[in-house]
């Protein structure tokens, strides 16, 4: 177990550095879409929620998991769609210009 | 949870994580942003489908119903929301993500409690971290949402001994967590930790005022990512850890940019409410014998119409009044008369990073006309008229020279260097920082008192008659 924890820590730290590198120097125009887009990605908690609510029998864990599934799905779907809506507006303008 | 998921699922996660990274990369450039968002969405879909194939996941009907409910609500919200309401929307979604992460931890705790085996230390630490970060993200975002939506007052809410109460809560939270690490099976203590986290989230955001919201929203965004990563540690899932870390990092970068744009440290944004500090600074200003020059829309239209170059400076007031479409109309009209029109956008104008850009994009303002602070400031010297609409602190010249001012040192848009400045404003009230604005009293400044949308519409009508 400890070994998997250490491995997970490695993954976490490396992914954080990747994030810093990838997102550096984003123009201000894209700050809001970047935020709502990354916000949608944080809805990845839905995967954890799916695992938590996966059991067949009914108990509190499954119920909490299912609530988490609903909340995280709102986050994911709402986040990606609203980001797309915003970026669509940027696009329209570029063609015109 | 420690047993490995089948290789296929793991490989799908790897693909999904790569799609997230590429997607985020592409979100950073205007030409590829939309595709990047789509890539990330595809990654998410892959991750969800792969997880559904997991042998532990058997409860298909209920899960599909849950996914369907969430999708419908999310889609409706995404299409209904007004662009001026984006900060609230992001705040709300953030909160839901944080809540989902925290719920995963609570569910896992409950499951482990039911196995009648002692809860392993590592799981326990992850669960506590997830509950704490997820809980704070949830209630903090909800308070931010309520403030932005106007459900509660947007100004800092403080009460006596606030810091002491916070400290006490934090200490009891740490104490409770420590207790749980030794005796993991105590449900009451666990519930107390959950409750303390939720209360702490509320107390953390209520003393922060509206103008500091860009920082808070960015920080909460970062926290929602870290919460997801913590949930990844709880269920030992690399997919969650990677995505959470990516979002955490991106949120932190934005937080940093916002703090820099206000010349304030994150600590000062979080722990000293701006409005309060400002009272002392404002009082010493001595504003008695200054006069302002007020004009009517007709005069304003003449100044604008016969100018060679006009720089429009939008602020939160424009967003509140939803004046972006009228402004576009005014700019079009002026351009038809041969006036060179540009927009100057301060990084913290509005209530979230990039808020003004989104609103102006909605009104079809060409991208090339938007200029950020470093770009436009040297150009104010050659500008005939700077038109300030609903912005205040970000154009306050005291930030440049008045060391006593609470906003001293904050980079501003130097509209006072323009030959003329017109300020559209409801009245003489101070901005978010609570500081009197010297700009309004300058000889070159004229005030157009009225609501932003109404005033701009009148200007459009008057300019047409020139």
In words, what does this structure look like?
By secondary structure, chain A is an all-alpha fold. Chain A contains four helices and no strands. Chain A has helices spanning 2-23, 31-42, 45-52, 60-96. In chain A, helix 2 packs antiparallel against helix 4 and helix 3 packs antiparallel against helix 4 (60-96). Chain A is flat and about 50 Å long. Chain A starts with a helix and ends with a helix. Chain B has 466 residues and is of the alpha/beta class. Chain B is elongated and about 80 Å long. Chain B has a six-stranded parallel beta sheet with strand order 3-2-1-4-5-6. Chain B starts with 6 loop residues before the first helix and ends with a helix. Chains A and B meet through helix 1, helix 2, helix 3 and helix 4 of A and helix 1, helix 2, helix 3, helix 4 and helix 8 of B.
Short description:
Chain A is mostly helical and 97 residues long.
Summed up, the helix count of chain B is 18
| Sheet of most strands of chain B | 6 strands, parallel
Strand content of chain B: 5-15%
Largest interface: A-B, 86 and 115 residues
Provide the helix percentage of chain A. over 70%
Q: Compute the average pLDDT of chain B.
A: 87
Shape of chain A: flat
Distance between the termini of chain A: 57 Å
Task: Tell me the distance between the termini of chain B.
Answer: 74 Å
Structural category of chain B is alpha/beta
Counting copies of identical and different chains, the oligomeric state is heterodimer
What characterizes the major β-sheet of chain A? none
- The tally of strands of chain A reads 0
Number of E-state strands of chain B? 6
SSE pattern of chain A: HHHH
